[in-house]
From TrEMBL:
GO molecular function: transferase activity
Keyword set, alphabetical order: Transferase
Protein name, as recorded: Glutathione S-transferase domain-containing protein
């Protein structure tokens, strides 16, 4: 439930924006930035495993699109889902 006292935004518009951001993160950002880049370039080398360079190249090519989608949704706001940072009160 969205509301001013929780970790979620207060208005229906901001709640909808939050849901859009979550969907983008789930569908595109996590797989490309976390699995495609971080795991391949940080986690695997720390474990002594080789990185999948072809996979990294694909993820790198998609990263700017993912991040631009978030920037476009910000609509001039300083935070992703509105004008203030949400917090648990």
């Amino acid at each position: 439930m969205c509301g001013p006292r929780g970790l979620q935004p207060a208005t229906p518009r901001q709640c909808a924006r939050m849901n859009q951001i979550i969907s983008i993160a789930d569908g595109y950002i996590y797989s490309n930035l976390v699995w495609g880049i971080h795991v391949e370039l940080v986690s695997k080398p720390l474990r002594g495993e080789p990185s999948d360079e072809a996979g990294v190249a694909i993820a790198r090519s998609k990263a700017p699109v993912c991040l631009q989608a978030l920037a476009d949704l910000m609509d001039g706001e300083p935070w992703l889902a509105g004008e203030t940072l949400t917090s648990h009160q």
